[in-house]
Specification:
By secondary structure, the chain is of the alpha+beta class. The protein has 2 domains: 36 residues; 44 residues, SH3 type barrels. The protein is built from 2 helices and 5 strands. A 5-stranded antiparallel sheet has the order 4-3-2-1-5.
Length: 109
């Protein structure tokens, strides 16, 4: 019975010599998996955020990455002035805007 297990061990050792093309195929499959599961979705997200920033207009209600909710009162190339209360406006980088919220979400009162 012990000879049976020893023979299997020798047979498994003989199988370790594989074709080099299988390694290349596995690497291509791994790269494709990384591309479709990690790289491509991140590129789509970045493209959508760039479009969001380019489309900011005065009067849009926004939420920043820091959690500040307000209404845009002025827009420049890199910055937006956001009204967060009746007498308070702040200047934020446009890249910190995480989303444009639906109209009526920001209540000035």
């Amino acid at each position: 019975m012990m000879d049976f297990f020893i023979q299997n061990a020798h047979a498994q050792g003989a199988q370790s010599e594989s074709d080099p093309t299988s390694f290349i195929i596995m690497m291509v499959i791994m790269f494709a998996a990384f591309y479709f599961l990690l790289i491509r979705p991140q590129q789509k997200k970045q493209k959508a955020h760039t479009a969001l920033i380019a489309g900011l207009q005065v009067g849009d209600e926004i939420l920043t990455a820091g959690g500040v909710l307000g209404k845009i009162s002025a827009v420049s190339d890199h910055y937006a002035v956001v009204k967060i209360s009746e007498n308070t406006e702040i200047k934020v980088q446009k890249s910190s805007v995480s989303m444009v919220v639906p109209k009526g979400t920001y209540d000035e009162a």
